[in-house]
């Protein structure tokens, strides 16, 4: 199929978190979204295919957003895949369809995340329901290896090396543990996209992401006052 001259398909290297909004804009257009700015500030609008489809159905077919495609993945599932699911569907119903055994058996051995393995949110049970922002459900084996205890930061710098936003996560660990939220704000914690790369690579097994979220919440609240 011939594409219009104004349309270009760009293939990017598979690299997490390549799909993040600011990463895509920089890689494809070489434009940088300013601090605390929006893509529109650099003349860009970023939409995923699900959003584009929802807009088309709303405008052209007068259909409300009542369903979306979600990815069901993880170990020991009998029916992994991408499914078109109605918004409001309980997670337990999805589990029942994708898992051949009992729901209790699955949740005893696996943790359920709404989203992907890196940025997904752990669910304490399966009573929640699908919302319009649910991209998928991921099942991760509980305690696949014995977790090392958290230690003090050794300032190895690995978190700085992997940060796609070129931030300094080691300072967020240092100030977060001391509840010095204002200091973390000075190191531009608001620019963090919460990809989790720093926590994943941390030699000291520090729960960086939880500290960063608290620091960002403080920064957001302080900006309102």
TrEMBL record:
InterPro entries noted in UniProt: 4Fe4S_Fe-S-bd, 4Fe4S_Fe_S_CS, Ion_transpt_RnfC/RsxC, Nuo51_FMN-bd, Nuo51_FMN-bd_sf, Soluble_ligand-bd
Protein name as annotated: RnfABCDGE type electron transport complex subunit C
A Pfam family it matches: Fer4_7
Entry-linked Gene3D superfamilies: 3.30.70.20
Record keywords: 4Fe-4S, Iron, Iron-sulfur, Metal-binding
GO CC annotation: membrane
Source taxonomy: Bacteria, Candidatus Aerophobota
Record bears the keyword 4Fe-4S: yes
Residue ranges annotated for the 4Fe-4S ferredoxin-type domain, each copy included: 143-173
Keyword Iron among record annotations: yes
GO molecular function: 4 iron, 4 sulfur cluster binding; electron transfer activity; metal ion binding
Gene source species: Aerophobetes bacterium
Record-linked SUPFAM superfamilies: alpha-helical ferredoxin (SSF46548), Nqo1 FMN-binding domain-like (SSF142019)
């Amino acid at each position: 199929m011939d594409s219009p001259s104004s349309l270009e398909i760009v293939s990017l290297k598979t690299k997490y978190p390549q799909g993040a909004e600011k990463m895509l804009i920089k890689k494809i257009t070489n434009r940088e979204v300013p601090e605390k700015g929006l893509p529109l500030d650099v003349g860009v609008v970023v939409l995923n295919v699900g959003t584009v489809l929802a807009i088309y159905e709303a405008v052209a077919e007068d259909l409300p957003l009542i369903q979306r495609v979600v990815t069901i993945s993880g170990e020991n599932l009998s029916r992994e895949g991408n499914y078109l699911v109605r918004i409001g569907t309980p997670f337990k119903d999805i589990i029942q369809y994708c898992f051949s055994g009992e729901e209790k058996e699955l949740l005893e051995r696996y943790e359920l995340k709404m989203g992907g393995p890196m940025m997904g949110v752990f669910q304490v049970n399966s009573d929640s329901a699908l919302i319009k922002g649910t991209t998928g459900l991921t099942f991760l084996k509980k305690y696949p290896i014995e977790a090392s205890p958290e230690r003090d930061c050794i300032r190895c710098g690995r978190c700085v090396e992997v940060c796609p936003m070129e931030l300094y996560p080691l300072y967020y660990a240092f100030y977060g543990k001391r509840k010095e939220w204002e200091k973390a704000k000075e190191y531009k914690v608001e620019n963090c996209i919460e990809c989790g790369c720093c926590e994943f690579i941390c030699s000291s097994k520090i729960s960086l992401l939880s500290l960063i979220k608290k620091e960002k919440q403080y920064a957001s609240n302080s900006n309102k006052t």
